Fold this protein.
Amino acid sequence: MRTSPSLASGPEGPDALRPLLDTVLDALSEGTRARGGPLPRGGPKAVAARLRDAVGDVLPADGDPNALHTVVHALAETAADPAAPLCTAHLHCPPLALATAADLAASALNPSLDSWDQAPGASELEALVTGALAREVFGSGGAEDASAPPPATPTTRLTATPTALITTRLTATPTALITTGGTESNQLALLLAREAHGAGLRLVHGANAHHSVPRAAWLVGLAEPVVVPAPAGVLDVAALDEALTELPGPHLVAATAGTTDAGLIDPLPEIAELCAAHGARLHVDAAYGGGLLFSDRYRARLAGLDAADTVTLDLHKLGWQPVAAGLLAVRDPGDLAVLHHRADYLNADDDTEAGLPDLLGRSLRTSRRPDVVKIAVTLKALGRSGLGGLVEQVCDRARDFADLVHGHPGFELYDPPTISTVLFRPAHADDDAVAAVRRMLLTDGRAVLGRARTDGRLWLKTTLLNPHTRPDDLAALLNLVEGNTPG
Amino acid sequence: MRTSPSLASGPEGPDALRPLLDTVLDALSEGTRARGGPLPRGGPKAVAARLRDAVGDVLPADGDPNALHTVVHALAETAADPAAPLCTAHLHCPPLALATAADLAASALNPSLDSWDQAPGASELEALVTGALAREVFGSGGAEDASAPPPATPTTRLTATPTALITTRLTATPTALITTGGTESNQLALLLAREAHGAGLRLVHGANAHHSVPRAAWLVGLAEPVVVPAPAGVLDVAALDEALTELPGPHLVAATAGTTDAGLIDPLPEIAELCAAHGARLHVDAAYGGGLLFSDRYRARLAGLDAADTVTLDLHKLGWQPVAAGLLAVRDPGDLAVLHHRADYLNADDDTEAGLPDLLGRSLRTSRRPDVVKIAVTLKALGRSGLGGLVEQVCDRARDFADLVHGHPGFELYDPPTISTVLFRPAHADDDAVAAVRRMLLTDGRAVLGRARTDGRLWLKTTLLNPHTRPDDLAALLNLVEGNTPG
């Protein structure tokens, strides 16, 4: 019998992993040094060639004992490093070392959450964590927040006024499903709504909604969604009222708490009231904004969230997890009955009757990685105060950056940030120049900036998700843009 | 400014990770020792209570510095360990230490495959690996295998006869998408078929298909599928011919290469011929059987696979990856045009024109973890010969076990294995006793066996995926079942 390569679990697993992890850490260090900046130099073609040359044949006839070092080194050398302060384009967070280390345990033990006998403990851990997070969303949210201080930087786009909205008191306990991210959460939310109201359901969403919302309607076979204008970046409540009045139902309204372009929050209390008045179902995509729940200072900005039927959360944004760490919080757990699914090899009736938990109805996936492990470790290690502190740090940093832009004669600020996104542009530059400076910095490997088109113009976007970013870094970023804008 | 917890990437990332990884490895060792067997003792309620007590509050007000050790230890103590030789129920493989270590790099650098500026190198690595795997499926498959030796243990259910089927020569290069597993691959296959043929498409699948196939039809809004009988465990070709002749099209036929219950392979060449004759589209779910592609000895069993339009593969089965490592191989890359999706912040027209790759159409997800990293390291480190050797080892072990069962007067063997699944039952036991012995061994923490209902009777199932399992382990497993069957 030939020798087999070592396995990650079992009594010998940790000893087999130790030297391999050393190789990975060394390759990460060396690759990061070789890169030298927030992303590799040279632009797409050059970077692709460098990776291809470094990796060589990915499926050779016979194995290459250096493969682990080779591939990890090449990956690190050609990565856009989310921990680099000038890597600030997207909702692409630098993961915590703690969460990353915890995720190793998920990989090594490889529990799969489709049956109890593949994940006896992990399934209970998931129940604990999803219950706790669902309580953050739906629990005693409204009441608790009434006494919270007003938001630190109110903007005209923010609705923080407490309303008289009475949310239905719950008899069943809210729950949450773990997903691969906001997109799958939105897909599941639409599927649950379709099953609750039939395939004639009409999705109504703002022009500011994430692209995955209409894409999910396409996936699950709903009619073309109705798009409500969002001229100020948030869903227009009067236009929503009109749409719900004029269009035949049933309706699913999808609102956003933390838009991708500007980090704005739709007026959730007013939207929830309209939904209640029109008998519409409400989904809130809080993939970005949901992290504010952890902050006593910012939590009140999510007033009204607890009136939603379903809420998308995403801890690989304001939660500092490696991808994937999405959730769909569900107010009425009865909604999940439609996901119930029977497969004799996983949840036979007599096994369920004999007390084996039936996990198959917690996801559309079958084999399923326990992303809950890293989430559980992070929540417990940091606590609400620690996570809230990180949220406040990046929001404060975004305010600093907005102040810097606002005070600089060479730049125009779109608006003070609601969460941690700042849109800005060099004054007197046209859209082509804005697009060009971003691509130039990308190609030169000096900064990763995002872009957003709003108010009919193209803006540069920074999404501050790195709690280690210092005011100096932000000044350097602004200098870099100033010095490289064409014209 | 308060101190923030360390990040996983950047120049300081590896040093921050090192002590945390030590904590994880120690907690894995200690938790595994505390468990002492393939799974924890006591059954669902007791195990859940043990985990809850060990973990405590998952979202405390303030952080707990021991959280990483606490949670990982509890997880290991309450895991069903896929590396334990008596953990042999499901398509739930023990991951290679190598793949597990490589996955750490994906977590640490956190590339997200929805835009080039979040994954400059990872996106090229994915292109390399998916291209190589698509070539394994569609490449020169048929021609190459014509000279391969016949399968080692032919069974009446296996169709290994070369056929005169001429597959269409390709002008475009086949490709593959990376998914969360066989289930998402099947969903994507149905979506691509729906878009190619319209929502009137009729899915036709065998009674032996994985449950995710009809579930995917429900997800994407297709009509109730037509189920073709599979009395011998594989799709009945005459019944398929009849269904395709009588029912109005367009049709999508879903065949299986490696059934979940018995590891059988549908007669792919005949099915492909029928699809060609009736103008039906063909999808093959090779989530389990696809791994045979790596073995020169077993590859010929997949003859006909290259005639499919889409093929589900899953390297967290016969590929020894931590979940998730699914793929959907697509013969005609033009089929993917319907996934094309535009989001100004990720793939604006002017960016695409300027040469930034557009990655959004490679998945239904948006943020997407580079599961390709661990796959690339494994393929390169083992090569085709190394992976093929592992496949052959577990198939050989399954044959050994089948021989053991067959030679034992106290047991009945369902059939010699086609891949690595063996169904067996204690002779003279009724179904209740079969179900009971499995649950007893689960509750006592002594063995994880699967179950399958076929031929109208309930069987115990072992799916041998552990290349380290020895003949002794198999004898011990059989003794355990013998000694614990009631009645």
